[in-house]
Amino acid sequence: MQSVSNEITQFRGTHYEFGREQGRYVKRNELLYNREDNWKIRVPRFQVDPAETKEMFLRYAPHIWDELLGLQDELELSLADTLLHFGHYRVEGPKSGCSIMTGDNFLVRNYDYHPMTYDGRFSVFQPTDGGSAIIGPASRVTGRMDGMNEHGLAMGYNFINRRRPGDGFVSFMIGRIILEMCTSVDDAISLVKEMPHRGSFSYVVHDRSNRSFVIEATARDIEVRETNLCTNHFDLLQHENRFHLDDSKRRMMELKTHQHMIQDAESAFRLLNDSDKGVFSDLYSHWAGTIHTSAYFPSDMKVWFALGGDQQPVEFDFKDWLAGNDFTLSHINGEIETDIQFANTLQTWR
Predict the structure, then answer these.
(1) In the structure, what pLDDT confidence band is assigned to residue 43 with cuts at 50, 70 and 90?
(2) According to a count of CB atoms within 10 Å of the terminal CB, is the N or C end of the chain lower?
(3) pLDDT tens-place string over residues 115-161
(4) Which whole-number Å values give the CA distances from 280 to 47, 84, 154, 308, 310, in the listed order?
């Protein structure tokens, strides 16, 4: 059992200033070293075209391009290296587990992945130059694997496969752009249908209308269904699924079996976070262990967050933060059943 921690970073200002601030964060931990060594071992089988990448960001999320320039200036990197590490367009996307359940004014999600890739940072950002304020865990510094924005739109994604990639954004940047640029589930559906996709993922969106949709997205096709459960396989684009779906279907069966007993967000959170319920995963060395469980409440504008299993979540009042009151907490602490450390704490690739 290992003690783990997420640093809480809070920032109000322009995207460029936010990029500089994140660059300062990267410089005081091991994130960039790990990313550089990762690419030395796993030589990129793709090319990042700066001109094409800039065009895509200016089309879908122009202020995030300013954030990347801030990172570049603070870290004194070339534009090509900045985009390789933090741009998340055309790069190789992740493979992972993940389970999501939504209900009356809540989205609860298990993020299942490899600790070595995990930033260990919970970010709250209120831009002053455009785009929505966002709360949630960071992924590869600039991306978001789940979160909620100031309009009460909550999002989480689930991996499907990396076969036949396209020229497009990877999942954690798509998640960030959804939260930054959309105000409702309808906005999110329209945007995801329009954007180019690198890999195949399900994007689950839930808002104050209390509607929940799974957007099944690949580089070739996009389909949408209204549902409150999602694991790691498509229901509509079944021809895009992986061949090995046993664990994904097992977790879906656990969610469906227990669904009639879910009375509220707390019981949903316990179903996903308790290690004896069948949804929580300890497969960390297989890139599919549950690192965090998060819950988002669009109407109340609150967030629950826990690292590891069998935890009591830390609660954040996002509405109060948006009113100008910073969180006094600096870290979220927890425990996970593995010796593999987070990417920001150890140079694991060396």
Answers:
(1) very low
(2) N
(3) 998 999 999 999 999 999 999 999 999 999 999 999 999 999 999 99
(4) 36, 32, 21, 9, 9
Residue 109 to residue 146: CA distance in whole angstroms: 8
Residue 273 near residue 307 (C-beta atoms within 8 A): no
* Torsion (CA) 208, 272, 333, 342 in degrees, nearest 10: -100
Residue 80 burial (C-beta neighbours within 10 Å; 0-12, 13-18, 19+)? middle
Query: Is-contact 179 192, C-beta < 8 A?
Result: no
Give 42: exposed, middle or buried? Use CB within 10 Å, 0-12, 13-18, 19+.
exposed
Set out the domains of the chain in order of their start, with CATH numbers: 2-336 (3.60.60.10)
| Structure letter (DSSP) for residue 228 | S
What distance in Å separates the CA atoms of residue 141 and residue 121, rounded to the nearest whole number?
Answer: 8
CA distances from 326 to 6, 9, 26, 297, 340 (A): 17, 10, 22, 19, 32
Confidence of residue 180 (pLDDT cuts 50, 70, 90): very high
Q: What is the torsional sign of CA 16, 47, 118, 110?
A: positive
How many other CB atoms are found less than 10 A from the CB of residue 36?
A: 15
Non-local CB neighbours of 197 within 8 Å, separated by 6+ positions: 166, 168, 169, 174, 217, 218, 219, 222
For residues 137 and 164, give the distance between their C-alpha atoms in angstroms, rounded to a whole number: 28
State how far the Cα of 282 lies from the Cα of 268, in Å rounded to an integer: 19
CA distance linking residue 184 with residue 173, whole number of Å:
18
